[in-house]
Amino acid sequence: MTDPQTLRGRYEDVRTRIDRAAERSGRRPSEIVLVAVTKNAAIEDIRELVSLGHVDLGENRVQQLVQRAAIVEEFNARRSERGAKVTPVRWHMIGTLQRNKVKQAVETSRLIHSVDSLRLAEELQEYAEERGSAPGGEKYGPVDVLIEVNVAGERSKHGCAPAAARHLVDMIDTMVALRPRGLMCMAPQHATTGGNADDARRVFIRCQELFEEIREIGSGGERFDILSMGMSGDYEIAIECGSNMVRVGSAIFGEPKEPATEDDDE
């Protein structure tokens, strides 16, 4: 029996719940990627989670992403020197991305979850293309991105309208230095905080349908295969609705000392 008062206990509980939700949806647990959101986590807790073997970490803000990525890299380097088997961490940029922070996000993250406009995509493409053409740039491949869709239509949320998602995927697919990998969405704020599972489920089902529609017509190509839905309050529902990537923070690291703002992811 896991202890909910410890990070290990909470982490193992989340993993168990993910496994069960995957099985209920007729999929293997290994098909679901858990991104541990470190926004409100203490550094020592992040180190502990990495020591447990977790490799996918997500951040909302670019400055914190860069700082924490450097800390974890140094931590893993010391572990490696002591003979520990170390798997490099994969960082995910999951929050709203300002165009003036594009360079840092591209340099630090493996996957950017929050591309919601052609203008932002063009900014990412411009930097990624410039990086690729610089000396030594041949080692870099395309930047993987998800299209954020505001399925719930909330004014407080970022994301493109569902009707615009396919066009945005098609536009990004023409950019040589970007690669559209899938969609990302969030359930309505009231559904997450108030426990309204039906509203969350409706949003997730609509995003899953949109994801499948885009895949069926071939937009994004064969690597368009990620559906990022679900946070601490609704990740099991999201998995049941087809999500294969969930973003979980407080269920692992504990509740934040200050309440999250409405536009925060996890």
Protein architecture, described:
- There is one protein chain.
- The protein has a domain at 31-37 and 92-253: Alpha-Beta Barrel (TIM Barrel).
- Helix content is 44%, strand content 15%.
- The chain is built from ten helices and eight strands.
- It has an eight-stranded parallel β-sheet.
- Helix 2 (43-51) crosses helix 3.
- The longest helix is centred in the N-terminal third of the chain and has 20 residues, at 62-81.
- It is globular.
- Residues 259-263 have low confidence and may be disordered.
Global geometry? globular
What is the CATH architecture descriptor of the domain at 31-37 and 92-253?
A: Alpha-Beta Barrel
Mean pLDDT: 92
Q: What assembly state would you assign to the polypeptide chains in this entry? A: single chain
Helix/strand-derived category reads alpha/beta
Strand content: 15-25%
Strand order of the largest sheet: 7-6-5-4-3-2-1-8
Name of the CATH class of the domain at 31-37 and 92-253: Alpha Beta
How far the N terminus sits from the C terminus, by CA atoms, comes to 26 Å
Number of discrete helical segments: 10
> Which regions have little confidence, pLDDT < 50, spanning 5+ residues?
259-263
Rg from alpha-carbon coordinates: 18 Å
Work out the number of β strands: 8
